[in-house]
Amino acid sequence: MCLRTLPRVFEKKRTGIIFFAILLISFCAVFAASSGEFWAEGKRGWVKFFAQKGYVEVEGKGKLWLKTGLEAKEEIEGNYETIEKEGEVVLYKGFQGKVKVTGMSFRVEFRGENIKFHAVGKGKAALKGEGTFKTDKESEQKWGVDYKWAHCRF
Hints:
Blueprint: H1 6-33, E1 36-67, E2 72-79, E3 82-86, E4 89-135, E5 141-143, E6 150-153
Antiparallel strand pairs: 1-4, 2-4, 3-4, 4-5, 4-6
């Protein structure tokens, strides 16, 4: 027969609670450090955004390409003339409005005018044309200087 003393029982529970708290804090730190925020505005140009996770909002007038899978969802507000599907990619010609895509593993490309772009999560962007961009870790920069591609990771 084994008798457990009350302090010994509480010591095991306290050790478990401390371990769980440390594990929870570690996960929160990893997820907080692995996401960022991105903004871009331009008169005209081409913006390509590749997301691992998060959401993106794009506004403007031009052509919109979306590649979403089962892990992403899009909400489209505005007008467009036609839709063409090429495999998993959907092209909206004559797009004028706003689109919001949320989820994981998606791609958004926009080519046109009056571009406003905002993304939160983890991904990378490529920009060409005339405009500015910034991230939560970097100050504002010009994109499309000399019509070269600008690249950004966040």
